[in-house]
């Protein structure tokens, strides 16, 4: 996750909380929510994601120092959490909003169900903390936060444009895509774990 430009940071966040993952999360909600409610949920959750990202990215160095957290420890913790979430997708054990939604449509509940997979995505928050704490300058933290906000904005645009299609997508299709995405995300979680172990100096995992 060593990125030094806006483009590099953007690609990092796109891979962990970009449209493929977010559309899958919204796809589950679309099964019971009308298009208008789905768009309201998208706006509310995207606003919450931006707020969380700005606070987390802007205070990253102090957060890590306050809780005495090292970068390798953060990578390991994020990798473990993300791996568990991804395995849940592969096995059909739904964490968050990827499963069927049998309850009556409710905007507040819809936003709440997006907390884990979207608003506070474990890997996205890990990437945000690591990248923002990489340099001490405010300009760099602003660049990282800007890249994160740009990805959230792209997610929002995709949801607003594709809401009618998500509404008509069969649940079995969403389930299939969820399991495929879970397999890919599990590999990302393992890679994050290996990065953390490498930074700790574990023999055989030293970066070249």
Which features characterize this protein?
single chain, about 210 residues, mainly alpha, 10 helices, about 75% helix, globular
Question: How would you characterize the overall build of this protein?
Answer:
This protein is mostly helical and 208 residues long. The protein is built from 10 helices and no strands. It has helices at 6-17, 19-29, 35-58, 60-66, 71-91, 107-113, 115-119, 122-132, 138-168, 171-199. It is globular and about 50 Å long. Mean pLDDT is 80; it is low at 96-102.
How many individual β-strands?
0
SSE-based structural type = mainly alpha
Order of helices and strands: HHHHHHHHHH
Unreliable stretches (pLDDT < 50, length at least 5) are: 96-102
Helix content: over 70%
Strand content range: under 5%
Shape: globular
The helix count comes to 10
Instruction: Please report the distance between the alpha carbons of the first and last residues.
Output: 14 Å
Rg calc: 17 Å
- Integer average pLDDT: 80
Summarize the structure in short.
By secondary structure, the chain is mostly helical.
């Amino acid at each position: 996750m060593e990125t030094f430009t806006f483009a590099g940071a953007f690609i990092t966040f796109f891979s962990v909380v970009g449209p493929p993952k977010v559309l899958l999360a919204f796809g589950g909600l679309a099964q019971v929510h009308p298009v208008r409610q789905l768009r309201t949920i998208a706006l509310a959750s995207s606003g919450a994601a931006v707020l969380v990202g700005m606070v987390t990215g802007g205070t990253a160095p102090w957060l890590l120092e306050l809780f005495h957290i090292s970068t390798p420890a953060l990578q390991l913790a994020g990798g473990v959490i993300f791996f568990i979430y991804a395995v849940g997708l592969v096995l059909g054990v739904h964490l968050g909003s990827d499963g069927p939604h049998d309850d009556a449509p409710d905007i507040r509940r819809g936003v709440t169900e997006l907390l884990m997979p979207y608003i506070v995505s474990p890997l996205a928050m890990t990437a945000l903390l690591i990248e923002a704490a990489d340099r001490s300058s405010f300009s760099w933290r602003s660049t990282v936060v800007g890249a994160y906000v740009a990805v959230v904005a792209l997610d929002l645009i995709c949801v607003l444009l594709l809401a009618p299609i998500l509404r008509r997508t069969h649940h079995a299709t969403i389930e299939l895509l969820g399991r495929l995405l879970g397999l890919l995300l599990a590999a990302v979680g393992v890679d994050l774990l290996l990065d953390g172990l490498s930074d700790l100096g574990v023999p055989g995992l030293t970066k070249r």
